[in-house]
Amino acid sequence: MSSSRGAGPAPSPGSAAGTSTPGTADQARPTPPTWLPVAAVGVTLVLWASAFVAIRHLGEDFSAGALSLGRLLVGALCLAVVALGRGVPRLRAAQWRSVLVIGVLWFGVYNVALNEGEQRVDAGTAAMLIQVSPVLIALLAALVLGERFTAWLGLGLALAFAGVGLIALASEGAGGRDVLGVLLCLLAAVVYAVSVIVQKPLMASLAAVHVTWLACTVGAVVCLPFAGQLLTQAQAAPGSSIAWLVYLGVFPTAVAFTTYAYALTHMDASRLGVTTYLVPPITIVLGLLFLGEAPPPVAYLGGLLCLVGVAVARRKPRTLATEPPAPR
């Protein structure tokens, strides 16, 4: 697909207006079945993997900004139907600031950077580059959310960025790919990681669909300067490409960002971030099936290093039985 959120008690997402009496949000929020957050993550991963392939395919008909605006407009409209059906959320000033940051970064900058990056690198390579984000999420979670920082995290960060370096070298020597595309995908990974950390506190008090809808709408507003390009290119695009653009807005945007936000409500940010290591292999398979393309051979080694870095970063240090648990 997501600043610190507003602190303090907030509304239960199940309430009509998205608000609740201070101090009652935790009691009002029922504990879901164990499998439900896992299922939400699974839906998110498959849909996001398909998005890399769709973006690469649509690069022939839409520029990066026009594709971003079209996707976000469709996503915001779909989300509005569901979100407003649950009432109008009431946000404090600090929460609005967080939503604005998420909308500008995750929905605005992320989409434009990724779309432009995928005009320069294949879908599988882009998916592997985005996978440095779990390490960045773990690092930011330690610095901002108070989750534990370990030596393993530092080693994982080094391995992940060594992998990025290999992917960049592989891309520079491959036809139709360049280092600028790698850097744009890396920028998308950075703003994604920041956005997850910003979103995490919001999920303690607001419904996932409200946060996603508001942020998506902000992203669409940010991308409005591309409206002229979108109109011109949509008129010239074949019907199949329009259908793919609508798919991007409905499923990888409206559905997937909401299921991710829901999972974030019930999982640690760092634990949830690491699950996205499944996106690259899914994307590579889909890229082979639908686009007939795959990353250059050396890029696989770089992608493997990124994934090893993620695994190492999430390794928990051994502690003595008498050692008190680390504060969280």
From TrEMBL:
Ranges annotated as spanning the membrane: 35-56, 62-84, 96-114, 126-145, 152-173, 179-198, 210-230, 242-262, 274-291, 297-313
Keyword annotations of the record: Membrane, Transmembrane, Transmembrane helix
A Pfam family: EamA
UniProt domain EamA: residue ranges: 44-168, 180-312
The keyword Calcium appears for this protein: no
Record field: compositional bias (Low complexity): 1-25
Disordered: annotated segments: 1-31
Source species, domain of life: Bacteria
Membership in a protein family: Belongs to the EamA transporter family.
Identification of the protein by name: DMT family transporter
Lineage: Bacteria, Bacillati, Actinomycetota, Actinomycetes, Propionibacteriales
